[in-house]
């Protein structure tokens, strides 16, 4: 069994420091909620985790499948419920590939493998949110 652990320390007010296996991040809330706007927001970090997880898959698959691209970005947007506890009920993920003569069939397969097979964060999101995926291709 594989286990992950993070340690999060309160720094006062609404500010925290969280240590994970790859480094330290600072967490804070918006001034509207008593924070100092001096750190990452917990819910937005979930969206970043989704993009990071899928992005790592895609970078690996691009290399393995020898897909020719200049770069790619991932935009993730989540809609929160109105009632507490607020959580994402719908998440939109847009994969943006940049390059000349992009092989759209190969890139579609790469995204599908990440979304449907490899990305564990995507699978976790599926348990509480509807996920909409879009792929955009841009000539460099």
From TrEMBL:
Entry coiled-coil feature ranges: none
InterPro entries hit by this protein: KH_dom-like_a/b (IPR015946), OsmC/Ohr_fam (IPR003718), OsmC/Ohrsf (IPR036102)
Gene3D superfamilies (UniProt xref): 3.30.300.20
Pfam families listed in its UniProt record: OsmC
Species per Swiss-Prot/TrEMBL record: Flavobacterium macacae
Lineage: Bacteria, Pseudomonadati, Bacteroidota, Flavobacteriia, Flavobacteriales
Name the UniProt record assigns to this protein: OsmC family peroxiredoxin
């Amino acid at each position: 069994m594989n286990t992950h652990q993070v340690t999060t320390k309160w720094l006062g007010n609404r500010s925290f420091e969280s240590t994970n296996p790859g480094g330290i991040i600072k967490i804070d809330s918006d001034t509207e909620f008593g924070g100092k706007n001096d750190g990452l927001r917990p819910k937005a970090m979930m969206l970043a985790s989704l993009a990071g997880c899928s992005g790592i898959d895609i970078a690996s698959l691009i290399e393995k499948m020898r897909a020719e691209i200049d770069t790619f970005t991932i935009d993730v947007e989540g809609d929160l419920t109105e009632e507490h506890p607020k959580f994402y009920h719908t998440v939109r993920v847009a994969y943006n590939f940049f390059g000349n003569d992009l092989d759209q069939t190969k890139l579609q397969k790469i995204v599908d493998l990440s979304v449907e097979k490899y990305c564990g964060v995507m699978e976790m999101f599926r348990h509480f949110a509807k996920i909409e995926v879009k792929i955009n291709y841009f000539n460099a």
